[in-house]
Design brief:
about 190 residues; alpha+beta; Glutaredoxin
């Protein structure tokens, strides 16, 4: 499957939420976004990114994990204008959902990172290690996160850092790519 063509068909976050989210979903995403911030150090790092990074995000407007994590991707894109995110609804795009299953299951959010010319660089998703550590520590409770975000929550701060690490890893793969270095003369 050519996933880059799916990236091209994806929507910016606002359009994705307008199309697939209810008013309650949009309110939850907005509240999470308001609680999501990058540190000055993180913004400075993102300001060094030079390679266009196209990011396909398979998500669900209804999903608590998505509402708590996708605003992180938007903060990253705001601080690094070379990062472009497009969202696909998991349920409407069953072919992409099947391609991006994790451990045999339909999970969200799942990200696929592409170079500027459509080569797949990496896949990452559904939760970061910090979130899994928190869930293992609880071992009881909800089967799906609520999406409620507290900006000062140490786990949420770690989740932001871990997603940023993945975006940074992809940027350095792109920056050091011999093919792209020849293309850009650097």
């Amino acid at each position: 499957m050519n996933l880059f063509s799916k990236f091209e068909a994806g929507l910016p976050l606002a359009d994705f939420l307008a199309r697939y989210g209810s008013e309650a979903h949009r309110a939850r995403w907005k509240a999470a976004a308001e609680q999501t911030a990058l540190t000055d150090e993180q913004r400075a790092l993102l300001g060094t990114f030079t390679r266009r990074t196209n990011v396909l995000v398979l998500a669900g407007a209804w999903c608590g994990d998505c509402s708590s994590q996708c605003p992180i991707f938007e903060r990253i894109a705001e601080a690094a204008p070379v990062v472009r995110t497009h969202y696909l609804d998991r349920d409407e795009h069953a072919d992409v959902q099947a391609e991006l299953q994790i451990n045999g299951g339909n999970r969200v959010p799942v990200l696929v990172f592409f170079s500027e010319d459509g080569h797949e660089v990496a896949r990452y998703g559904e939760r970061t290690l910090a979130r899994y550590r928190q869930l293992v520590g609880q071992l009881t409770g909800e089967g799906c996160a609520t999406g409620l975000v507290k900006g000062s929550d140490p786990t949420q701060l770690a989740v932001v850092r871990e997603w940023l690490n993945e975006f940074e890893r992809v940027q350095w793969i792109l920056r050091l790519s011999p093919r792209l270095r020849r293309l850009h003369g650097d």
